[in-house]
Amino acid sequence: MEEKTPLIRVVKNENLSKTKIWCIRLSAFVVAILLGCLIFVICGANPIAAYGEIIKGAIGKSTGIKQTIKIATPLLGAALALGLCFKMKYWNCGAEGQITMGALGAAFFAINFGTKLPSIPLLLLMCVGGVVCGAVWGLIPALFKSRWNTNETLFTLMLNYIAIGIVAWLQGGPWEGKPGSQIVPNFPKAAVLPKVMGIQCGWILIILLVFVMFFYMNFTKQGYEIAVLGESENTARYAGMNVGKVIIRTAAISGGICGLVGFMVASGVNQTIYSGIAGGVGFTAITVAWLAQLNPFAMTVIAFLLAVLSKGSSALQTAMGVPSSVSEIIKGILLLCLLGCEFFINYKMILRSKKEAK
Fold this sequence. Notes:
Elements: E1 8-12, H1 18-42, H2 47-59, H3 62-87, H4 95-113, H5 119-148, H6 152-172, E2 195-196, E3 199-200, H7 202-219, H8 221-231, H9 233-238, H10 243-270, H11 281-291, H12 296-320, H13 325-346, E4 347-351, H14 354-357
Antiparallel strand pairs: 1-4, 2-3
């Protein structure tokens, strides 16, 4: 018996023009905004006024801009780190733990040498400590992957919870301030990052890192090796590349960048360390990297957009009485639409014709 053609077929899109690709993405953004309007209407708020309050609260005043940049900086740094691994199809989901370990490495020097060293050498030691700890935490699953071909997704995810557990132990044990408080005392002033334009100077490092990563990925031999490995491991081996070495090196660099983010968060924003210091940034950064198609400059825009939504939500709650959780719904809708549109960029659906139905 002859099989009927399926009602709907999904086939890969070939040679879709850049104009059409961006039209699809723009349409997805418009749909997300319209769905957000529906959510605001359900909550009894004026959608235009609500979006206006979000923008006003995030970038309407200098204080709002500073807070938005503070939110965007670690998110962008983590996305840049993950972009390296994703480019070679190494699914690093451990940025949360690597950031936490970077903060731990920085906190070690702040707690033990904060009153013994001048600010500049102390901050340099904290930075190196953060980068090294993050790199080591990123290196562990890469070593297992290259030697025994373990699943890096599960491995890196589990290491997140180990890192958080280590900091929780330190927080309630050796580094605890007042007994029973479960709080690590604030770092000495020498261990706090200085401010530039009213914001801890870490944002400058991350902006510079955007350009460095773009150059590294597109104009260096190591960036080329990452791209080739991402396309085909067999091709990389045929070309004479040491695949294990590339994986280990790239994972270590990725972890080191996350460790740098941990240092900046601990020394600049929180000025202490606690088990939840990463604040979910490592997981949100996965979405940022994918939405940006691993382009560092696109990551900058998307990280800033998410920071605007995050900061603007507090202003929305104050001005209009709309729960701050609504902004999380809006953010989720936006991410869903922007990620979902990639399906229509890569694939198209074909309906069964009348002739094929017969």
